[in-house]
Amino acid sequence: MSGSLMRLRGLIRKETLQILRDPSSIAIAFVLPAVLLLLFGYGVSLDARHVAFGIVVDQPSAAAASLTAQFQQSPYFAPRDFSSAAAAQAALANESIDGYMWLRSNFARQLDAGREPTIGVFVDGINANNARIIENYVQQSWSVWIAAQAIPGTAATPIAMQPRIWFNPAVSSRDYLVPGLIAVIMTLTGALLTALVIAREWERGTMEALMVTRVSMNEILISKVVPYFILGMGGMVVAVLIAVFLFDVPLHGSILVLTLAAALFMLASLGMGLLISTVAKSQFVAGQIAIITTFLPAFILSGFIFDIASMPVAIQWVTHIVAARYFVSILQTLFLAGTVWSVLVPNLFALLMMAVVFLGAARLAARKRLD
Amino acid sequence: MTAATEPATTSPIPPAPTAPAPALAPALAIVGITRRFHVGKRHVVALDGVSATTTPGLVTGLIGPDGAGKTTLMRLIAGLLRADSGSISVFGIDVHTDLLSVQGMISYMPQRFGLYDDLTVAENLELYADLQGVVPTARAARYAELMQMTGLASFTTRLAGKLSGGMKQKLGLACTLIRPPRLLLLDEPTVGVDPVSRRELWSIVDHLVRSANMTVLLSTAYLDEAERCDDVLLLHEGNLIGAGRPGDFTRAMTGRSFHVRSPHLPKRRLQATLAALPNVTDAVIEGETVRLVMDAGKTPDFSGQPTLEDVTLTSVLPRFEDRFIDLLRSRAGGAPPRRSAEATPATPTAASKTAPVIEVDHLVKRFGPFRAVDDISFAVQRGEIFGLLGANGAGKSTTFRMLCGLLPASAGRLQVDGFDLRTAAPTARGRLGYMAQKFSLYGDLSVMQNLDFFSAAYGLRGARRRARTSWALDEFELRPLRDATSRDLPLGFKQRMALACALMHEPDILFLDEPTSGVDPLARREFWQRINLLADAGVTVLVTTHFMDEAEYCDRLVIMAQGKILAQGTSEQLKQSCRDSAHPDPTMEDAFIALIQADQTKSHAEAQAV
């Protein structure tokens, strides 16, 4: 075995043993991703479901009962009955319900008279996004119900809008959040963990001891890249399995392309991590820089949660230097649409460029010296 | 990495390096090395035109206090730093132009030994064997040899992080020796480890040089280690102030060193009086006597000193430290600071001399199953300087923290001036001054701002605060530096300032945690002079240290190891307890080692009996 291979083997074995024995590596590589996945998979949702919704019926009638039933059957609402509008208003004020519908005493009369009845709908506008969603749901439920009443003169609306949603027919935010999350998880292992472990070597003085041996900077860098690349890809596989089998997120595209994209993204992330570690020689500083320059952008600027097209133009430009942006786009395409080459190729190419630039910069910045 | 340099790395355990071809070529040639650092706005010259050579096959000591430039020079030789000017070559090969070849010939142990705490002893060895290109077939024999040499054979599966300081040091050394280098660089290998481990390290180093013809460069701040080196380089503030054989340094002092003994003067008073005399290079307490070193060509003259009329004067052999102080004094411009023995910075409150000020009774501190402090008892009288002596990890700082009320005791009783500070009112703490390890000052504040802050923190205000601040500036000679940023001060000044801050409120009891770590010998002497004056004025002083020779300054002391007190008494009593034919004139280190060995024999016997 040549000296170089022997050194590399020794370093990689050392790195692997350290990963296996260090609780903080395991935490960042496996516990944190699991928490994030469960949090986003179960907790955080951009859909309104089981909205606490009040219903006030001033004078019970068959029509009122039928409309109430319409809301009760909907998966979007968890209706509660109130005896008066004032009681519902009070519940709205103390935030125990998000909105309510008020059917006044003339509701059945109007309907019987063949007119479209008027109802009152009140929605808590504090969370504007939520309010708009609830308003929409109420509107839809109302349209469905009124159409079914076949009121003469109003029944035949000339143009009926029939929305059809592509790629995410269930309009479930989970289906696009969970794939995007894979990018965030891999950023954690690639950039944050790598920057931290190298900073730890500086702090404990072991880097100093390594550098005085005949080891080359290439060997040191490769020994850091290989184990964390494997760790990151392992994290990716676990995340995809959880997404598909636990959260039932469909995977329409090619697994091969997914693996290729993940590998390129992992290399770009590792490049960032290595680059950070050439500047930051303490774990505290390395952690701060890694979170601000890689983790937060992967969250905010990648299109994972916020749509890039609706950002201000200047910010849109900034997103171009965020590697996660390309990977999130690839992930969402592969999971929800399939292997759409026209979208994938430019993004894959961008990831390749970023991997080359960051790894190259890390190699150039790495000096076998302390100054 | 070029192919041409490859084969050298895969040689089996190389035979002992062949003697350097050119008979008189130095192992290490350092020519006019200058290295500056920029730290923020600060501009520090770590090494200022240093030139030196070392001889192959010898142990060369790089001697100097913290901040002298030792580590910078080590790193320059190892190629970890680049010099601003000058050149370094190892066995004729320039470090700057052919770093990999140089790194193929050297091994380097950095200050924290370069070990991976989460790898076992065997895994650390395996890693360095891979890095140094030791062929697999040669490894088993080499590991066995190194483990036997370092006494680690029964610990190969233990994580390095779980080893004691002394064992880490030996493992670090074993890792650097996995492939015997031609030049071995050891950066402060003995700092903070116990004297037994220090001795073992030195015997390994001695053995290596003899059997493997290895050249060693070893840096240390302990002056007594200089005498174990074949050659020494003395560094001070980035300058080389001396080079040569330690014996030559010592011989130059012949006839200038004396022991002075007085029938009636207490040793501290005697030391203070002698230090204030003209033509005196150095006066330090040594056992029951004071070691006096005279300026070149001067003889002790006590005429006109009524208190010194009846002293006995014995000529003694010079030692290395005498010469080092001599060199520092001549650089500093001759005269040591003269300090009047009458100055009384603090007024003790009237109290009976007999009641102990600090009482510790069967004190225990457990961290989980680990007993950091294991059933210790001692008592300190008013006006006494009381020392806790032990290696890193002996339990000194834990004891301190409990006394200051910063940590609760697991069992036992402790009282400081009649209070348990953990439960006493804050006013009780006002009687106490505390100087923490590493001098906890605010680096961004100026000297004046630090003094103001600490006096305010101790509740001083108005005229009293102005008076105390002014006293501190004069007493500690800080007035010219009052607007200097604390961070930029030399270590000796930081230490002075930390002591000034601890004394702002005129405490009756002073706690000093490793107060002299790393400061140069002159600053140490000056520091102890102040402490002596305080003790004479009735202040009770409790001090921790791992410097064996500092025990001489204490009236009484305890020796601690692994949380237990091995012995207590005056330094003279402790030293006499181990006097035998092998050690007719034992040092504190001899006493310490004898005590540790006796303790190990005892616990071994107990283990057998069970």
Q: What is CATH's topology name of the largest domain in chain B?
A: Rossmann fold
Radius of gyration of chain A: 28 Å
Proportion of beta-strand residues of chain B: 15-25%
Looking at this structure, what is the CATH superfamily of the largest domain in chain B?
A: P-loop containing nucleotide triphosphate hydrolases
Anisotropy-based shape of chain B: globular
Shape designation of chain A: elongated
Number of helices of chain A: 14
The strands making up the biggest β-sheet of chain B line up spatially as: 6-7-8-3-9-10
> How many strands, what sense, and barrel or not for the largest sheet of chain B?
6 strands, mixed
**Helicity of chain B, in percent?**
25-40%
> What is the rounded distance between the termini of chain A?
33 Å
Structural class of chain A: mainly alpha
Q: What's the order of the H and E elements of chain A?
A: HHEHEHEHEHHHHHHHHH
Q: What count of structural domains of chain A?
A: 2
CATH architecture of the largest domain in chain B: 3-Layer(aba) Sandwich
Q: What is the spatial order of strands in the main beta sheet of chain A?
A: 2-1-3-4
Please identify the structural class of chain B as seen in this structure: alpha/beta
Identify the quaternary structure here.
Answer: heterodimer
